[in-house]
Write a structure and sequence with these properties.
The complex is a heterodimer of chains A (136) and B (276). With 136 residues, chain A is mostly helical. Helix content of chain A is 43%, strand content 2%. Chain B has 2 domains: 121 residues; 137 residues, no CATH class. In chain B, strands 5, 6, 7, 8 and 9 form a 5-stranded antiparallel beta sheet that branches. In chain B, β7 and β8 form a beta hairpin. The model of chain B has no long low-confidence stretch (mean pLDDT 90). Classes of the chains: A mainly alpha (136), B alpha+beta (276). Chains A and B meet through β1, α1, α2, α3 and α4 of A and β1, α3, α4, β4 and α6 of B. β1 of chain A pairs parallel with β9 of chain B, so a sheet runs across the interface.
């Protein structure tokens, strides 16, 4: 694994803006029963980008659980108390976010967070790739 | 098809995350799961024809058309739901081949979901099969304008000639020459940015099963400078090391001109399922 070597490219866990780029704009579109107009994705993403700075601030003070945490999703045993704790922290983060968003951060732009998890770590977990070339 | 009755009185609806093979997804629900988009719901599978949609219940108080539209303008509300949507899809995508859905696919009842699965079975199966063993990687390209300008000044012969002329010229002429050089540098920089983005796309595409460009928003910046390109690649898991090495090599090459690459992922294949 190359996780520790100094790299010319920076790898990081997906941030909020990357997520929005995908789930609001991409992903399979199925009409469903509720009409959702995502026409103004750009505006929303811009608004949220302002928030990201604030959320990064929230992370600095330890509210970083909502970032990708592979342990959180792979551990098999169920820890209810931890769940309750997470909910509590979520509520706290929500309060924090609301508070921070009411004083819009002046500096726009989501600073990429230097993530500790490097890209290779999560790759190649399953080597079951059915090789079907040329289709995309 | 329209015979399906919509239960008006129902207060809850089903929010969908992704679709996969029922047999593959069923065991995954016994594991420890990420939080659904709303706490009141619980992740479940809705099956038809061997396909299954991952869904959870949401209240129509927040997810009918009107309420949702209002929420969509609320950045704080959206930020949390976006992360939750992604975490759920990500959980399944890391363990099975799934078709990730866009935010906001909502049905009023199970019958609606089942009917959709049946109607689109062929298309969904083809996508599930195509995505098997593959995942999406994002490559963001940043440009440090100052470093780029310096690099351009040092490689452009024409600019060096003009610089020489300016030094020898009278003050008035030198001023005009420098103005001309300024605009030349800007043009060159613009051209260099698009050449670089194209090159990265072309070269990384070779080690992938597909490539696409994401839309750039206005003034996207980061700690590495201005964001000049957002690319996404569909990569075979077993070929990822190869893909990464290619990205490293490119990063070394373009780094001298002030470009920096950032790799994000692995992602569910959001950019490689669009049907339209």
């Amino acid at each position: 694994m190359s996780s520790e070597r100094t790299s010319l490219i920076s790898a990081r866990p997906p941030g909020l803006v990357d997520v929005l780029d995908r789930i609001l704009d991409k992903g399979l579109v199925i009409a469903g029963d509720i009409k959702v107009s995502l026409a103004n994705v750009e505006l929303l993403t811009l608004q949220i980008r302002l928030l990201v700075c604030s959320i990064d601030k929230a992370e600095q003070i330890g509210l970083n659980w909502w970032r990708y945490d592979t342990n959180l999703t792979t551990r098999a045993e169920r820890a209810e108390s931890e769940n309750a704790e997470l909910r509590e922290r979520l509520a706290e983060l929500e309060r924090q976010v609301l508070q921070l968003s009411s004083t819009p951060a002046a500096k726009a732009g989501a600073a990429p967070v230097a993530g500790k998890r490097t890209a290779t770590k999560a790759a190649g977990r399953r080597g079951t790739g059915a090789s079907k070339k040329g289709r995309s | 098809m329209s015979a399906r009755k919509v239960v008006k009185k129902s207060e809850s609806a089903l929010y969908l995350y992704c679709i996969g093979e029922a047999l593959t997804l069923a065991p995954l629900l016994k594991e420890r799961l990420p939080a659904p988009i709303e706490d009141e719901g619980r992740l479940e599978l809705l099956e038809a024809d061997g396909l299954a949609a991952v869904a959870s219940a949401v209240s129509l108080k927040d997810y009918d058309e009107e309420a949702l539209q209002a929420h969509l303008a609320d950045a704080a509300w959206m930020a949390l739901r976006a992360m939750r949507h992604e975490r759920v899809v990500d959980y399944f995508a890391k363990r099975a081949s799934v078709v990730p859905l866009r935010f906001g696919v909502i049905y009023l009842d199970r019958a609606g979901v089942e009917q959709m699965l049946r109607e689109r079975a062929q298309e969904l199966r083809a996508a599930i099969e195509r995505l098997e063993g593959r995942e999406e990687w994002g490559v963001n390209i940043f440009c440090d304008r100052k470093a780029l300008m310096d690099a351009i000044a040092s490689i452009s012969q024409r600019l060096q000639e003009l610089e020489g002329q300016a030094e020898a010229a009278s003050a008035g002429q030198a001023y005009l020459l420098r103005k001309k050089m300024d605009s030349m540098r800007k043009d060159e920089a613009r051209a260099e940015v698009s050449r670089t983005v194209e090159r990265i796309e072309r070269e990384l595409r070779e080690g992938s099963e597909g490539a696409t460009r994401l839309r750039l928003l206005k003034d996207e910046a980061g700690e590495y400078g201005e964001l000049v390109g957002k690319l996404a690649f569909l990569v075979e898991r077993r070929r990822f090391d190869e893909f990464r090495s290619a990205a490293e090599r490119l990063a070394g090459d373009v780094g001298r001109a002030g470009f920096r690459l950032e790799l994000t992922g692995p992602w569910p294949a959001y950019n490689f399922v669009t049907s339209n």
